[in-house]
Design goal:
heterodimer; A: mainly alpha; Ammonium transporter fold; two-stranded antiparallel ribbon; 5% strand; B: Rossmann fold; 4-stranded antiparallel sheet; 20% strand; globular
Chain lengths: 355, 436
């Protein structure tokens, strides 16, 4: 429905027509928040893990993220042109999708991987279902799963952090693997791989700072937390989602592994923090009600740990997010909050009056 | 006085208040033009029936239109002069209504009712009815009808929250006429047979809280400081904030033993009882970027908006005015021209510039639920919009669209700038018309 706005007239004192007045329904003021400003805030928040990934792995992850953002934006632009609909690139949501996808890839993958992923995320997951607000699942999380299934080897080989002291050579070192499928020479084990066997051997400080192997933007817990805090303070994301997600994940880690030493490394490893802050909080695919949000976030926590503990996959965050994304429409359909002052249909007795 | 807890309701928003433009300007008198157009349908309910005809001579306070039916209110002339004609044109609310045009003779003669001393409950209600007093916060519900509740009342709330941006008329009333205001509050308490009166003021008006608290002598009347939040002044939200009672859906405040009156209604009630004045004038905030002499003015009912603009716009560029609002920016009604005139419910006339009413371009719903997280009634506006767009009004009704108080929070909050309220109004109107 288009906003009905008509035009009226304003006269000066002597009855001379001066100007058109806008006539529309109330309210006549609106909050400064727009879709674009919200997306811009997410981009600002994503700058923290992006910066961390440069410090840890050099400029190659930045290059991958740039490719991913560029392909996402271009795909959306082309689809808008083909469908002959209003260009929605300016709302910046494609940039956000591209950045998240770029940052949840391993730091060294061939250059075409982020391009294929971004095209899949935007074209299939987002635009085919009707564009912004209509995607059935988080585009970046779904694209990551798609890439994982397509190039399992590449997507599970994690390069080791570089030595910043070596200067430019180290910062640009990973570019030489840009077209190569064989990166085994530089790969390292991720904490998650050695996690099940001996959690006590892990260096928690390194995991917190990100000096470990893992996906480019996910390794540095501190960077992700800074981004999350920014989004929480700006009230861009519903802070309940990451808190409940991580809280439930910790609880189920304790239950399924039966040892408290697994809990903290579990939170700091893999994509849990990054996924909880940046992917699970996607507006389109998270529920609209408080109860729905609690179920959604707790469900992700449970599924993540189920996959980690009992599944054959190394990591369950993207799958958990995807699965709960699919449940979201159901949660939205069947959970309707009671209006303020709701009374059960058969009015049996009056509300209790208290002084 | 002991430090009181600052109360509020759940959810809501914090729009920019813009009150600084007018809150420190003391009350002024606005000149009265030669012709006044007095609307006979300036209250909720049936329009009043004109009792005068062309050529009749009237004074200020002469009854010119009589209440028609139970929910209706008397209308009085606000100047002395001659009835010129009775014409129909749209009033400030956009609805076609009869207007009694009175030619001002410049003598300002009064016709007063006898002042009452020690009035009984019945006397007060009868006088409020005779004086045509309605809810002057904007709802314009006839006060004497409200004072005939089905349930016993124990608390009367005086609404001086004034949560709408720009508007400061109740604040000035409290500062400049605290005596009359408190008399009115006490009269309304008697008329409602209530024990206590709670005067609800948002804490961004500390001067008013201090002034009124200082004048209180009994424990029957208390000042309740409220958090600054929109829509704090909405009836159900105000009752919840002040008394923690929830008005049931579809119910009235009287169902929980409460009655709410606007601050200006209390003032007018006191003037009617103790001074015999009919409701012929009110305080109005004139503000916005398109007006130079912004402030609060005593205006007579029936003064055309055009006159107010001509008197007050001063050196402001006329072409800077983008929207003229009768009422506040959240719930006020945009005027297509300045032909409408002041009514008993006209709390403000705003001349807003393009920048002050700026709204970004509408985009697709991103399902962020910002509309629902702000909703003071805990509704799901995004579902109403989807239902209205697909024409499924029965679904909208099942989801509770009739509980919407049209405060505008959802539409204010929406980052995609969707006109949610418009869909909701369409749904409510269709449901009423089709009796779904």
């Amino acid at each position: 429905m288009r906003a009905l706005a008509g035009k009226g007239n304003l006269y000066n004192g002597s009855g001379i027509y001066m100007k058109n007045l806008t006539v529309s329904t109330s309210p006549h003021v609106s909050s400064p928040k727009t879709t674009r400003s919200l997306m811009l805030d997410v981009i600002i928040a994503l700058a923290a893990p992006l910066l961390a990934s440069i410090l840890i792995y050099g400029f190659y992850p930045l290059f991958l993220t740039a490719l991913s953002v560029g392909s996402a934006v271009l795909t959306e632009y082309i689809i808008c042109k083909i469908r002959n609909i209003e260009n929605t690139v300016t709302d910046l949501s494609a940039v956000v999708t591209g950045m998240i996808l770029g940052l949840c890839l391993p730091p060294v993958v061939p250059f075409y991987v982020p391009i294929v992923g971004a095209v899949f995320a935007v074209a299939i997951v987002k635009m085919l279902f009707g564009g912004i607000g209509r995607n059935f699942a988080n585009p970046a999380a779904t694209a990551r799963i798609f890439l994982m299934l397509s190039w399992t080897g590449i997507m599970t080989a994690y390069a080791a952090p570089i030595d910043l002291g070596a200067g430019a050579e180290a910062l640009f070192g990973y570019f030489r693997y840009g077209v190569s499928l064989d990166i085994s020479a530089i790969t390292t084990a991720t904490p998650l791989a050695s996690y099940a066997a001996a959690p006590k051997n892990l260096n928690l400080l390194n995991m917190f700072l990100g000096n470990i192997g893992g996906s480019a933007g996910e390794v540095s817990a501190v960077a992700v937390l800074i981004g999350g805090a920014y989004l929480g303070i700006r009230r861009v994301i519903d802070i309940k989602i990451p808190l409940i997600y991580i809280g439930t994940a910790m609880l189920f880690t304790l239950i399924f592994y039966g040892n408290i030493s697994y809990v903290l490394p579990g939170v700091l490893s893999g994509g849990l923090l990054f996924g909880a802050v940046f992917m699970a909080t996607d507006y389109s695919t998270s529920p609209n009600t408080v109860l729905g949000t609690v179920i959604y976030a707790a469900g992700m926590g449970l599924i993540t740990i189920l996959i980690r503990r009992f599944g054959t996959l190394p990591e369950g965050v993207s799958l958990a997010i995807l699965l709960m994304n699919i449940v979201t429409p159901l949660l939205d359909k069947y959970i309707n909050p009671k209006p303020f002052g709701y009374v059960k249909p058969p009015k049996t007795k009056k509300k209790k009056i208290t002084g | 006085m002991p430090k009181e807890k600052i109360r509020t309701f759940r959810r809501g928003i914090h729009p920019l208040s813009h009150k600084a433009q007018t809150e420190n300007e003391s009350l002024r008198e606005l000149s009265t033009p030669e012709l006044l157009n007095i609307n006979v349908a300036q209250h909720l309910g049936a329009p009043a029936v004109p009792t005068v005809k062309e050529g009749d001579r009237v004074a200020e306070g002469t009854l010119i239109a009589e209440a028609n039916g139970f929910v209706s209110a008397n209308v009085h002339s606000s100047v002395s002069g001659t009835v010129k004609k009775i014409v129909s044109f749209p009033g400030a609310n956009g609805l076609l209504a009869k207007h009694i045009v009175i030619e001002n003779d410049g003598l300002y003669e009064n016709e007063l009712m006898p002042a009452l001393e020690n009035p009984t409950k019945e006397d007060i209600i009868a006088r409020i009815k005779a004086a045509g007093i309605v809810g002057m916060g904007g709802a314009t519900f006839p006060a004497h009808v409200k004072l005939a509740p089905k349930n016993p009342i124990d608390t009367v709330l005086i609404n001086a929250a004034e949560c709408e941006p720009y508007i400061t008329c109740d604040y000035r009333l409290l500062l400049d006429y605290p005596g009359d205001f408190l008399n009115g509050a006490e009269l309304l308490r008697q008329a409602a047979d209530a024990k206590t009166v709670l005067i609800c003021i948002e804490v961004n008006k500390p001067a008013a809280v201090k002034k009124i608290s200082g004048l209180l002598q009994t424990d029957d009347i208390k000042v309740v400081p409220l958090k600054v939040k929109y829509p704090q002044g909405a009836e159900k939200q105000l009752i919840y904030a002040a008394t923690r009672r929830r008005v049931p859906c579809g119910g009235l405040p009287a169902d929980v033993g409460v009655m709410v009156f606007n601050a200006h209604t209390a003032y007018s009630a006191a003037r009617a009882v103790y001074n015999g004045e009919a409701c012929t004038r009110r305080i109005m905030t004139v503000a916005g970027g398109g007006i130079e002499k912004a402030g609060n003015y005593w205006v007579r009912i029936g003064v055309p908006y055009q006159h107010i603009f001509d008197e007050l716009h001063g050196g402001c560029d006329i072409s800077s005015v983008a929207k003229v609002l009768s009422g506040g920016p959240m719930m006020g009604i945009a005027q297509p021209n300045l032909k409408a005139s002041v009514t008993k419910g006209s709390s403000a006339l705003l001349f807003l510039t393009e920048k002050q009413t700026e709204r970004a371009k509408m985009t697709a719903c991103i399902n962020c639920a910002c509309c629902a997280t702000g909703c003071p009634m805990n509704l799901m506006p995004m579902k109403f919009e989807a239902a209205a767009k697909s024409g499924d009004f029965a679904l909208a009704k099942r989801l509770g669209v009739m509980n919407c108080l049209e405060c505008g929070v959802c539409t204010y909050n929406c980052p995609a700038k969707r006109p949610l309220i418009q869909s909701i109004r369409l749904a409510k109107k269709t449901i009423r018309e089709k009796k779904l």
